[in-house]
């Protein structure tokens, strides 16, 4: 198997800590070049990983004819611009979430994909993890009856004013950064799009970003998602899926570590003390590596792309509706 040649757009932490090691650990890809606006930093990072080429300019990376695919972890406001440029340069793209700052601007990616004939994947690694495959399978099998509600939380603390999450001018905020996960996993489990959305948002007075965002989404058939996302609360994440005959609880739903296993709880609800619950354990996996392997297979045409860019835009429409609701104080339609 000839490996797919990747180029990494920037020296963002997620690329250095997660994606570059994930690609290198896999069977389908090789990182052959890296770019940063700081040429010296690009050279240092490239040397650390044994990457052959580095560039002090993003466009130079896109102009490298040996590169087949680009990983784009730039700040949120640059996702569309550089994804479009990469596609039009003939590269496939794995772009970090959220795909854009709003659904309208994301349409430029659709146009660039169609024009270039290349593929683009939004980097929601959670949908690659076996625990989520199993959760969806259990729901479809009716293990907990008819699912009526999902409760989700993704909270952590980030107080650094220079961190991109605390920069309102470049697309920071809890909803963009971590609130997108409860939304995408609810859509994954329900297999449907929400019809209405309402939100409460608290913004940091200094940073201007939403530090706490809570939302309620109404799905067809009376089903609901209630979630909270935060940048200034103690670290916590959990998903509970509630059905007519039980519940499924996902203990570490979004960022299970690659060297630790994880567990889901399935409870019929017949005992208030939890003694009716059973557990299923999952061996440690690197969900970022799984994501990169699947992306490479899709880019090479060796596997179907389960979630095309239209799915990313659908998720973006929900985020747009939640931001509108926080201003209007009303239910909004995605």
Would you spell out the secondary-structure blueprint of this structure?
Elements: E1 4-9, H1 13-25, E2 29-35, H2 39-49, E3 53-55, H3 58-62, E4 69-72, H4 79-88, E5 92-96, H5 103-116, E6 120-123, H6 130-141, E7 147-157, H7 174-190, E8 196-203, E9 210-218, E10 224-230, E11 232-243, E12 246-250, E13 262-267, E14 277-282, H8 287-299, H9 309-328
Parallel strand pairs: 1-2, 1-4, 2-3, 4-5, 5-6, 7-10
Antiparallel strand pairs: 7-11, 8-9, 9-10, 11-12, 12-13, 13-14
Helix pairs in contact: 1-8, 4-5, 5-9, 6-7, 7-9
Question: What's a quick, concise take on this entry?
Answer:
The protein has 334 residues and is α/β, with parallel strands linked by helices. The chain has helices spanning 13-25, 39-49, 58-62, 79-88, 103-116, 130-141, 174-190, 287-299, 309-328; strands at 4-9, 29-35, 53-55, 69-72, 92-96, 120-123, 147-157, 196-203, 210-218, 224-230, 232-243, 246-250, 262-267, 277-282.
Oligomer designation? single chain
The neighbouring-strand order within the major sheet is: 8-9-10-7-11-12-13-14
Tally of DSSP helical segments: 9
What's the gyration radius in Å? 20 Å
CATH topology of the largest domain: Dihydrodipicolinate Reductase, domain 2
Beta strand count: 14
Largest sheet: 8 strands, mixed
The chain-level mean pLDDT equals 97
Instruction: Report the order of strands and helices.
Output: EHEHEHEHEHEHEHEEEEEEEHH
Unreliable stretches (pLDDT < 50, length at least 5) are none
CATH class of the largest domain: Alpha Beta
How many separate domains? 2
Give the name of the CATH architecture of the largest domain: 2-Layer Sandwich
Distance between the termini: 43 Å
CATH superfamily label of the largest domain:
Dihydrodipicolinate Reductase, domain 2
Strand portion, in percent?
25-35%
């Amino acid at each position: 198997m000839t490996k797919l040649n990747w180029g990494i757009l920037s020296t963002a932490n997620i690329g250095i800590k997660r994606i570059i090691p994930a690609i290198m650990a896999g069977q389908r890809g090789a990182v052959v070049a890296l770019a940063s606006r700081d040429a010296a930093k690009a050279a240092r990072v490239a040397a650390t990983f044994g990457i052959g080429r580095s560039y002090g300019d993003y466009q130079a990376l896109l102009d490298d004819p040996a590169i087949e695919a680009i990983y784009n972890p730039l700040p949120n406001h640059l996702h569309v611009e550089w994804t479009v440029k990469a596609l039009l340069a003939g590269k496939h793209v794995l772009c970090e979430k959220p795909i854009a700052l709003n659904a309208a601007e994301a349409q430029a990616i659709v146009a660039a994909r169609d024009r270039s004939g290349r593929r683009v994947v939004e980097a929601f690694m959670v949908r690659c993890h076996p625990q989520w495959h199993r959760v969806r399978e259990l729901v479809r099998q009716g293990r907990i009856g008819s699912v009526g509600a999902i409760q989700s939380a993704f909270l952590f603390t980030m107080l650094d004013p220079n961190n991109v999450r605390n920069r309102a001018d470049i697309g920071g905020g809890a909803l963009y950064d971590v609130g997108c996960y409860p939304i995408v996993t609810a859509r994954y489990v329900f297999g449907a799009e929400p019809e209405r959305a309402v939100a409460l948002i608290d913004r940091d007075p200094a940073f201007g970003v939403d530090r706490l965002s809570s939302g309620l989404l109404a799905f067809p058939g009376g089903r609901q998602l209630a979630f909270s996302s935060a940048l200034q609360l103690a670290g916590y994440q959990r998903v509970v899926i509630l059905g007519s005959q039980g519940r499924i609880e996902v203990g570490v739903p979004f960022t299970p570590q690659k060297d630790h296993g994880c567990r889901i709880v399935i409870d019929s609800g017949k005992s208030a003390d939890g003694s009716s619950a059973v557990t299923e354990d999952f061996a440690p996996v690197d969900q970022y590596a799984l994501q990169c392997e699947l992306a490479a297979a899709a880019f090479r045409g060796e596997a179907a792309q389960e979630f095309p860019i239209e799915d990313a835009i659908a998720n973006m429409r929900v985020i747009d509706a939640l931001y509108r609701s926080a201003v209007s104080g009303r239910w909004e339609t995605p």
